What does this fold into?
Amino acid sequence: MLVVRTIKSFQFLNKVFLLLLFFQYPLFSEDIFQIALNKNLQKSNIWQGLLHLDKSQKPSINNQKFLYSYPNFSPKKELIQNIQQILENQNQFACQFPARYLFLATELNLNTEINISNCKGLELYFKNTDMKDLELVFVSEDVSSPSSMMGHTFFKIIGKNNKTHGVSFFTEINTFNIPLLVVQSLFTGMKGFFGLSPYRKQLNMYIENRNIWEYKLNLSKYYKTLIYYHFWELKDKDIEYLFTGFNCGTIINDMFSITSSTYRNNQNLWITPKDVIKNLKKNNLIVSSKLIPSKIWKMKMFIDALGINKVNYLVKHLKQKITFSTDKKIANLEKRFLLFYIGSLYSEKKISYKIAVELYQKFQNIEIFDTDLDISKYKNPINSHNDSQLSFTVSDKNFVQIEFLPASNTIFDDNREYFSETSLKLGKVAFKIDKDKLSLESLDLLSMKSLVPWDSLTKNISKEFHLNYEQHFDENLKEFGAFNLSFGLGGTKKLGNDIYLFSLFHGGISHHSQNISPYYYPEFGFMIYELWHMKTVFNYKYIVNVDYSYSDFDIVHSIFIKKGFRIGFNYNLKLNSNLHRESFNFSLNFYL
It folds into this structure.
């Protein structure tokens, strides 16, 4: 009887305990929700950075794999539903969204430890990468390649196991249809991928032609861990890649915006990879940097330092007796160049291993010491002007023109921090106001110009491409709007440090009023960087259409006022055998 009563008492107490738990859970849940709302976690820069929200609070990754509140998203709804997921299945949520869990658990005083033994994929990710430190990598631009014309940024995970991995957001370009590529990359979007691979493998993709900067970050362990966890959250998500809206720079900039509300609130209109580096510097998030120069860059550096005649002499007499300079520093550079050149010949399989060893041994006994030639300061993306521009032009023809260039630069800008003289216009639009009439002057979907100096070693070719709407001229030198596709090839010669001569031959096709007109023109020009932060660009074109032709002379003189402002003076003359048309324009350009 006593046993029966004891059992019944235990059952009664058990029911009471379960009943208390039943009531306690919603009370506890309500408390935890209230704590989150009282702390305004939905407005936290960390929360909004992890969700990749734009300035209008809309998510850049908008799908049900990434957002619990999809399709009726709001930062507050998403916060509540994430907390609900933690209460219902804490470990499953932590396995899927470890960065969000770490943030919410920290703010709500929950256990921040994740039981990764139940997270097979996450456990393998932690095991393989085992982060000790996190760095950012910037790869210089290559405007001649559609996939790399804006440069590239990605993360470097330094593991405790002495392994390094690269984490990168990218898209695959699998078409040679340039108009289609422009439409997809600027408007409709392309499939984005967030991938993890060995760092050396990613490095080898760029080291031939593009410079690589590694930046040591001034971040606390907490922020580095959040970013490291967040890589996992982006895996296998449906992400749309847009050059203009959501590129590798945008997604990484969002991650760094978790560090402060100041960082998040001071954003450019269009985030490029180069903007990320500038934002890091502005917010004191860079401890130090290291430059890994490409082979072409290093070759150009030696050519600039020694002169092309000296470099050609060294190459020509590589297997013979070489007379070095009597200046020790210059002689040292000559010897360093020869060792670099021998290594390049071998890596390109132009000489055998045996010959490479023999040549190395020839210069091995010659004293080589460090010089004061600092390649890290040779050119630097941080020192270049901002990518977006707004300009106002006043003409002697009594009209005003307003231009906006979302990205990236023109041939008239100060491009000395770039690999070469380049122009890249993505989405540039210009409107003309003439006698109270507003009209579209031009629209550049994609226009690029790359004037890489040619030399006997690198043998770089200069290129130009246009896909745009612009003003053309008829046989009476009257302008008309036309859709245009053109391409040019040629060469550039560098005379000293600040003077360039260039020549290209162009072919193109234009469409106007249901008429399609092929045309071609040779172009000759020069540019010079003058004293007191000035630059002058002159070019001449002889444009040949089916039924007529004319000459086009153009001079643009620029005065650079610090990094954020340019004054431009432009004189243009067009003439044929019977007519001539000239104009003078004054412009103010603001770098945004």
